[in-house]
Design a protein that fits this description.
Length: about 375
């Protein structure tokens, strides 16, 4: 290997500005990854994603395996070619989606058995199987199978679950030893809301030579102060030289806080899902475009945003599109919200490079007063 996968260029406290290299490009970190569950970021085309400067998107093993099928995608040359997406792709392993979407889940040593939410058919995800699926998709970053324990799980259950997650990670490593594939593979730490179990999970997972490490099992319905407490406890325990990924998180304040704790990568449906219900993030705070006060507002959605929606349309028009349930509303709102989240990460990176990350975090905290832990 000529160049290492991950390089840290600057630090400011625990916050890191780095570069992550995959088979499909170079990703500046911290980074926010738009979610494209079924191989499409809802309402947007790859051109739109390129215009807003997204270097990496997420795909989902669970969804793509069930429909259209990973082998079908493989026969079409992989997900990049199938979806005409030239950038990087990270795929979640499917375990999390099995727990949130499918019915009749049965967790066994072998893997997790479930019924499809589409047609009720029965399937088994094993640590080996989910990697084979991700290889068929030709994901740049594959995630291992894990069990995300729900908030409120007791100590005994969480301890048992984390031991299983570790055994599954070992099987993943055995199936794809380091250097056996050009796809990168990340391990996922769990441990619920018990600090000693978080530590144990990190110690067991990080003894294995994964290309990066994720923090799973946070933002699952717990109060914010609990999440931040666990985040600040766990992130510094992960190996400093590898990329760190906080799965399924979060709000702008969660992301800014995660970066402060030393996390490099984030993904969340929030910007795209909220775009479709009219909740928009701006440099002046969060607004709902539905509101009457915008009916005759000729100003741009966000005067400080460079996106296509903000450069060309008024709040009054965006409100009208939303009220009329026009498809263009989904596209423009999604373009804007993703621009906001990508810019948040870019601005965070710049702040780290310039040694003013604490000021940046204070600014974001002031912008979202209702969310502070
Ligand atoms: N595990 C996996 N994917 C995830 C999570 C997890 O714990 C979360 C939790 N926030 C989101 N997505 N595999
Ligand atoms: Zn905008």
């Amino acid at each position: 290997m000529s160049q290492s996968v991950f390089t840290i260029e600057h630090t400011d406290g625990a916050a890191r500005a780095g570069v992550l290299r995959t088979a499909h490009g170079t990703i500046p970190t911290p980074i926010f990854m738009p979610v494209g569950t079924v191989g499409s970021v809802k309402a947007l085309a790859p051109d739109d994603l390129a215009a807003i400067g997204a270097p990496i998107i997420l795909g989902n093993t669970y969804h793509l395996y069930l429909r259209p099928g990973d082998e079908l995608v493989h026969r079409r040359g992989g997900l990049h070619k199938f979806a005409s997406w030239p950038g990087s792709i990270l795929t979640d392993s499917g375990g999390f989606q099995v727990f949130s979407l499918s019915s009749l889940r049965k967790i066994r040593e072998e893997g997790v058995e479930f019924r499809s939410h589409l047609d009720g058919s029965k399937h088994l995800f094993t640590p080996e199987k989910v990697l084979e699926i991700q290889r068929n998709l030709n994901s740049d970053i594959m995630m291992v199978l894990d069990e995300c324990v729900p908030f409120g799980a007791d100590y005994a259950y969480t301890e048992k679950s984390l031991a299983l997650t570790t055994r599954w990670a070992k099987r993943a490593m055995d199936a794809y030893p380091p250097g056996s594939a050009h796809n990168l593979m990340f391990g996922i730490t769990q441990g619920g809301f018990y600090k000693d179990l978080r530590e144990r999970s990190v110690n067991e997972l990080c003894a294995m030579d994964f290309d990066g490490f994720a923090i799973g099992g946070l933002s699952v319905g717990e109060p914010k102060d609990k999440m931040y407490d666990l985040l600040y406890h766990t992130a510094p325990l992960l190996p400093g030289e590898k990329p760190r990924y906080l799965m399924g998180v979060g709000t702008p304040l969660d992301i800014a806080t995660g970066i402060h704790a030393g996390v490099d990568m984030f993904d969340c449906v929030l910007p795209t899902r909220n775009a479709r219900n009219g909740t928009l993030y701006t440099s002046l705070g969060k607004i709902n475009i539905k509101r009457r006060e915008f009916a005759e507002d000729d100003g741009p959605l966000d005067p400080n945003c460079r996106c296509y929606a903000c450069r060309n349309f008024s709040r009054a028009y965006l409100r009208h599109l939303y009220a009329s349930q026009e498809l263009l509303s989904f596209r423009l709102n999604s373009l804007h919200n993703l621009t906001y989240f990508l810019d948040l990460a870019r601005n965070a990176r710049q702040a780290i490079v310039e040694g003013r990350y604490m000021d940046f975090l204070a600014k974001i905290t002031a912008l979202y007063p209702d969310e502070a832990a």
